[in-house]
Design brief:
Number of helices: 10
Helix content: 25-40%
Shape: globular
Strand order of the largest sheet: 2-3-7-4-6-5-9-10
Distance between the termini: 30 Å
Radius of gyration: 19 Å
CATH class of the largest domain: Alpha Beta
Order of helices and strands: EHEEHEHHEEHEHEEEHEHEEHEH
CATH architecture of the largest domain: Alpha-Beta Complex
Length: 330
């Protein structure tokens, strides 16, 4: 327990060098990525990675994503195949995680005891500089208590884990705001989309040139998972969430004041302290960027219930709705 609270660093060269030394020494550092903020440790240090699980209250069957500094580092942690090389060439650096057979160097704690590992080459420039300075791949799940809404700013991390960790690197608000797309390539002839994200199913199929299946069921709690974010309930505020395909201005206006209404775009007529929206014009990428921040704001306001509108359309709408459905699961 850190009684003084975590320090937030702005990422000067001197501070980045210091944080890199802390990581090499086995410390944890909360880091910015283009998706959400992560809680990083040296991926080859089993003891440091075990601390991630303890700090987050994360079950040991939920594997960590390993972040690498360059494509050359992929072979340090995984056994790549042609399908992985094609997707990496198209989308790395970026919000894509690939599940591949793991290299022997990766501790079992990182992969939940499975012979596979989830790998990503992030795009956030500050995080990439820290990766290069650390000189080692970094395992990093989202930097929040397990199951809660993911953090998209350094302040979110401080409020959630600030008494349990010592170092937070501030890289500004996350540009995408949703966790990475995850593709299972353990069998490259049968690729599977495990989690939708900023890269759409359609984009993946176009690059890979073959169908990519979607999982038919969510993971069962207590069983090893090939990748994070597979549980039915995840990314959840404390306030109960009820989903609706469409919210009506009139219904929201006449509703109880202790219930929050979350629209995808700014409503024309509904007004009040219990009315929220993700983007004024309904732009899906801007809505995705705001989703977790708005859910946190509603949660902290003390409402009894959240009525949330599902997104409509292709692409990132699938990822938004995936997070909303997991937030609403009981």
């Amino acid at each position: 327990m850190n009684r003084r609270g975590a320090r937030i660093y702005c990422g000067t060269p001197r501070q980045l060098s210091f944080l890199a030394r802390q990581l090499r020494a086995g410390e944890l550092v909360a880091v910015p990525t283009e998706t959400v903020y992560g809680l990083a440790a040296d991926a080859f240090n089993a003891r440091a990675c075990r601390r991630i699980f303890a700090v987050k209250g994360r079950p040991m069957n939920d594997p960590l994503i390993v972040h690498i500094a360059s494509l050359r580092d992929l072979a340090r942690v995984a056994v790549p195949n042609e399908a992985a090389r094609r997707l990496a060439a198209a989308f790395w650096p970026g919000p894509l995680t690939l599940v591949l057979p793991k290299a022997a160097s990766v501790p079992h704690i990182v992969s939940a005891g499975l012979p596979s590992v989830a790998v990503r080459l992030p795009a956030h420039p500050l995080f990439r500089r820290l990766l290069r300075l650390a000189g080692t791949p970094l395992a990093a799940p989202s930097a929040n208590p397990f199951g809660y809404v993911s953090p998209t700013t350094a302040e979110h991390v401080r409020r959630g884990l600030g008494r349990k960790i010592r170092h937070i690197l501030d890289g500004g608000p996350a540009r995408i705001g949703l966790e990475s797309t995850i593709v299972d390539l353990r069998n490259p002839n049968q690729p599977r989309l495990l989690r939708p994200g900023g890269i759409s199913h359609r984009e993946l199929v176009r690059v890979l040139g073959r169908p990519i299946s979607r999982p038919r069921r969510t993971a069962i709690a207590g069983t090893p998972q090939a990748a994070p974010g597979q549980l039915a309930r995840h990314y959840s505020p404390h306030t109960p969430v009820a989903l609706r395909p469409r919210l009506a201005d009139r219904t929201a206006t006449g509703a109880a004041r202790d219930e929050a209404w979350l629209f995808q775009r700014q409503p024309r007529r509904a007004r009040g302290a219990n009315i929220f929206w993700l983007d004024s014009r309904g732009d899906l990428r801007r809505a995705a960027r705001q989703l977790f921040a708005v859910l946190r704001r509603i949660d902290e306001a003390g409402f009894r219930k959240i009525h949330a509108e599902l997104a409509r359309g292709p692409g990132v709408a699938e990822a938004i709705n995936d997070r909303l459905r997991r937030a609403a699961a009981r």
